Amino acid sequence: MSEQGSIELPENGAEMDYQEHEKTYEVFLNLFKWGTVGCTVLMIAMAVGFYAGGGLIGGTIAFIILMAISAFFM
After folding, report:
1. 61-63-68-72 Cα dihedral, nearest 10 degrees
2. Could you tell me which residues come within 8 angstroms of residue 2 by beta carbon, excluding any fewer than 6 positions away?
3. Residue 45: which domain range?
4. Which of 4, 25, 42, 55 lies 20 to 30 Å (CA to CA) from residue 65?
5. What is the pTM of this model?
6. What is the DSSP code (8-state) at residue 11?
7. pLDDT tens-digit series, residues 1-34
């Protein structure tokens, strides 16, 4: 069998911009974190409004208070 030399692959695009990549990843993590917190708080607020007798006003107040608490601890 014949020996093959090293194969040079063509460059696929420009060099990585690691600083921009890290910024994008940080934004993604923040969106994921706050999206999860927002959905969880919304479910709790809906439970307060529908099942605990809070109604629309009670659920809205619960949502605002829980989001403020989440913002404080994060």
Report:
1. 140
2. none
3. 31-73
4. 25
5. 0.71
6. P
7. 556 667 776 667 667 778 888 999 999 999 999 9
